[in-house]
Amino acid sequence: MNARLVVIGLAPAATGALRTGRIFTGDASSKFLVSALYKAGFANQPISESKDDGLTYSGCYVTAAVKCAPPGDKPSKEEFRNCAPYLDAELSLLRHAKAILALGSLAFRAVVDRERKSGADVRGVKFAHGASYQLRNGLKLYASYHPSPRNTNTGMLTEAMLVRVLEEIKTGLAKESRDD
């Protein structure tokens, strides 16, 4: 897979990915995220309703830190710990990845914990919407609020805010390609 951007959400939603079989599909969070990915040029269409809807990503891979739908949408530390090897395996297979976009502080923490376990110095790496950090092996970590209805309905995250982060990532990826 030639994905240069890896988008990491929290966990499959019971009404979305768990029901449809594809992460960020068929729920309010997916509508918000996929529309932003489309506007930034990472998706071929602005909708994600079913795994047969024709959606394809361009240079982008979408996954979750936790692999099962947690009770109350709040994964336990044990769930993060149990799922960490699967996220690690996914990221290890994505050899062309140069950027990770963590959606929400918990997905961000999963990436930082992975870095810490590998021996990387992660002091000073803190979640803030729009923040970015250079990681080991040429990866760059970006942070965004999660596109949950709780965040989008209150205006904590607007589509323009998410598109801005995605465009920053796209610009960084393009610059890196020119520098190679």
Describe this structure in words.
39% of the residues lie in helices and 13% in strands. The chain has a five-stranded mixed beta sheet. It has helices at 17-20, 28-39, 77-93, 105-117, 149-152, 159-179; strands spanning 5-9, 60-64, 99-103, 132-134, 140-144. The chain is an alpha/beta fold. A hairpin with a 5-residue loop joins strand 4 and strand 5 (140-144). It has a single domain, classed as Uracil-DNA Glycosylase, subunit E.
Q: Count the DSSP helices.
A: 6
Instruction: Count structural domains.
Output: 1
Largest sheet: 5 strands, mixed
Briefly, what CATH class? Alpha Beta
CATH topology: Uracil-DNA Glycosylase, subunit E
Query: What is the assigned CATH homologous superfamily?
Result: Uracil-DNA glycosylase-like domain
The overall average pLDDT, rounded, is 90
> Any idea what the radius of gyration is?
15 Å
Q: Termini separation (Å)? A: 19 Å
Helix % is 25-40%
CATH architecture: 3-Layer(aba) Sandwich
Quickly give the structural class: alpha/beta
- The helix-strand sequence is EHHEHEHEEHH
Shape: globular
Unreliable spans are none
| Extended strand count | 5
Percent of residues in β-strands: 5-15%
Largest sheet: spatial strand order: 2-1-3-5-4
Fill in the keyword field for this structure:
180 residues; alpha/beta; Uracil-DNA Glycosylase, subunit E; five-stranded mixed β-sheet; 39% helix; globular
Write a concise synopsis of the structure shown.
The chain has 180 residues and is an alpha/beta fold. Helices cover 39% and strands 13% of the residues. Helix 2 packs across helix 6 (159-179).
